[in-house]
Specification:
single chain; alpha+beta; seven-stranded antiparallel beta sheet
Length: 468
């Protein structure tokens, strides 16, 4: 999915945000998940901004929405900006938004806004800033990695905090109902944007609200409210390849986390164990869903390859490639919208990719060379980094009964998330002289046993259907 967490907005100089495939991934599909912006931010077109400023007098201002103004005035004292600061230098590392939900100073925001406080509390501290510029320290009480939520407490407050209430779950949202999203976009200042409720996102691994409105970096963790000013969702992400296609976390999950946080002790030590526990739960649910839903068969000539059920993943395909004359090449790529934030990177995704070759005019020797080169071109993270170890691979030939396959399984362990791995399964058919199927399965943040179950489930689903 070409979507990204819309905050925290880093304090560093802005760099271009683009969707790029990692070295261990197949060629990027039509849309690709973007990691949280931890070292860069979406660019600000300063020349365009200057032009707009110089021509402001000549362009009539858009009419002000009375509803948006009313919501803004109703909510302004309940909103805060969340800043993560380097302890030693006391400089800003990232910026997001949040809102008060209890008189004793509990604040809801996104986990990706507060992740540095959870994982590196010895290096970072957090502060909240009100619209009037009042500033105070915050402490992290609880977080929900799967749904990208966190609850902070404002420390040393002497007065009761103004509170935003939640919309009752019994009052279902209506399609097209007006929504108002609040936050501090691009560290420019507090703002309200109007949009509409468009139901829940299809194929989202966890429930997400489709908000037909604009969200920008810096607004993550801010509230989205209804016409009465009641919180119905928490700002979290937007699509990078579309306009006014944004996403909210349903308020019910924030309410549940607030209840858990109310009696929690502050998190003062790196919380990798808790992050690991939650991600282990995520991969367990992911594995069960994929094993429970049978693969659909996709036809490429006589080959039958497995693709996920439509409820689990989106798939795209392409036909003949002009760069390969004399070769009928078809490609398919599928991606599950199951990624979760684990600090300054994302994990938990599942992707599949196929290339189907048919080249009756090339001859067996030339086809074997092209087919082998394509298999060898698959890229991996061959060296370890601060998050993961170097990849280790095992190769064997397998036969599900109708189609012999060459299979390579590669795994890389997370250094600070024990028991979790990134796994890639590469397959190549070996049954025809001028035809072939290459397949790739990528699973991030999977336990070893579950990875083996998914790999076996995947490999057993390939078939060759001989012509009658």
């Amino acid at each position: 999915m070409a979507h990204a967490q819309i905050a925290p907005r880093p304090a560093a100089a802005p760099t271009a945000v683009a969707a790029t495939a990692s070295a261990a991934s197949p060629a990027a599909p039509a849309s690709q998940a973007l990691p949280p912006a931890a070292a860069g931010a979406e660019p600000v077109d300063r020349s365009a901004a200057a032009s707009a400023a110089s021509g402001a007098a000549a362009v009539p201002a858009a009419p002000l929405s009375r509803d948006a103004r009313r919501i803004y005035e109703l909510s302004r004292d309940k909103l805060v900006q969340i800043r993560t600061l380097l302890r030693n230098a006391d400089t800003q590392a990232s910026i997001g938004s949040g809102f008060f939900v209890s008189a004793d100073g509990l604040i809801v925001t996104n986990f990706h806004v507060a992740s540095q406080l959870a994982l590196e509390p010895e290096r970072y501290r957090g502060v909240y800033v009100t619209m009037e510029g009042q500033e105070g320290e915050v402490e992290l009480l609880a977080f929900d990695v799967q749904r990208d939520l966190a609850v902070l407490r404002a420390k040393a407050r002497t007065a009761a905090a103004p509170v935003l209430g939640f919309r009752p779950a019994a009052e279902a949202l209506a399609q097209g109902e007006r929504i108002y999203s609040l936050g501090n976009p691009l560290d420019i200042g507090f703002a309200v944007t109007e949009g509409t409720y468009n139901g829940l996102v299809r194929r989202s691994f966890y429930p997400r609200i489709f908000f037909g409105g604009t969200l920008n970096p810096g607004m993550s963790g801010g509230p989205s409210v209804d016409d009465a000013g009641r919180v119905l969702g928490v700002n979290v992400a937007k699509r990078l390849d579309g306009e006014q296609v944004s996403f909210l976390i349903p308020a019910e999950f924030a309410q549940a986390l607030v209840q858990r946080a109310a009696s929690a002790e502050p998190i003062t030590q790196p919380a990798y164990a808790e992050v690991t526990r939650q991600l282990t739960g995520h991969q367990q649910v992911l594995t069960e869903r994929f094993l429970k839903a049978p693969f659909r068969e996709q036809r490429h000539g006589n080959y039958r390859v497995p693709v996920p059920d439509d409820a689990l993943a989106r798939c795209w395909g392409s036909g003949r490639d002009p760069n390969f004359p004399g070769l009928n090449l078809e490609r398919t790529q599928c991606q599950a919208d199951s990624d979760v934030v684990a600090g300054d990177y994302s994990t938990g995704t599942v992707g599949l990719a196929y290339e189907a070759y048919n080249a009756p005019t090339l001859g067996a020797a030339r086809f074997a060379r092209v087919f082998s080169q394509s298999f060898a071109n698959e890229r991996f993270q061959t060296r370890g980094n601060r998050h993961q170890t170097a990849v280790e691979c095992s190769e064997r030939f397998v036969d599900s009964g109708s189609l012999p396959l060459r299979a390579v399984v590669c795994m890389s362990a997370y250094r600070k998330l024990p028991g979790l791995y990134n796994m890639t399964v590469l397959t190549a058919s070996v049954n025809q002289p001028t035809q072939g199927i290459l397949g790739r399965l990528d699973v991030q943040g999977i336990a070893f046993d579950n990875g083996m179950k998914l790999a076996s489930h995947y490999l057993k689903a390939f078939r060759w259907e001989a012509a009658p």
